[in-house]
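Field log, afternoon session.

UNIT: design team B
ACTIVITY: writing a sequence onto a fixed backbone
BACKBONE:
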């Protein structure tokens, strides 16, 4: 497996992010065009239902990804809070946002404490936190 770093840590699944999303949007557009062409004829219900099916599929596509990411974010928050507590003996700063915690997961044990304090004090954005990490800690088990 290729070593993970700031430049390549984003994860895209070709079949989901590119192929399925393109097919769903294409299907929606074609179904809308079909509805417009057949609006004056009988059978509007069938063409309208086809548009609604594609709208529903797009909602399913969007929400199934969002639900998985939300569950993953909660797990990351718990893991990183526990890791911080083990390293420092105290709870993570309450000013740290979930986005910052998610970014901090890439920091190794040697860097996380100082980087967490800096993120809390300066309000670093998640992207800035990732750029501050010197020795990247890969996360290969994400959704």
């Amino acid at each position: 497996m290729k070593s993970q770093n700031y430049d390549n840590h984003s994860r895209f699944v070709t079949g989901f992010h590119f192929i399925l999303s393109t097919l769903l949007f294409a299907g929606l557009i074609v179904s809308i065009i079909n509805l417009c062409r057949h609006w004056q004829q009988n059978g509007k219900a069938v063409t309208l239902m086809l548009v609604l099916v594609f709208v529903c599929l797009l909602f399913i596509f969007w929400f199934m990804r969002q639900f998985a990411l939300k569950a993953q974010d909660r797990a990351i928050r718990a893991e990183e809070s526990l890791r911080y507590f083990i390293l420092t003996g105290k709870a993570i700063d309450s000013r740290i946002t979930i986005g910052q915690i998610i970014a901090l997961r890439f920091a190794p044990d040697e860097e996380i404490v100082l980087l967490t304090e800096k993120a809390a004090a300066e309000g670093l954005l998640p992207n800035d936190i990732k750029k501050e990490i010197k020795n990247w800690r890969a996360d290969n088990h994400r959704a």
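LOG NOTE: Residues 35 and 41 are 10 Å apart (CA to CA).
NEXT ACTIVITY: expression trials, pending approval
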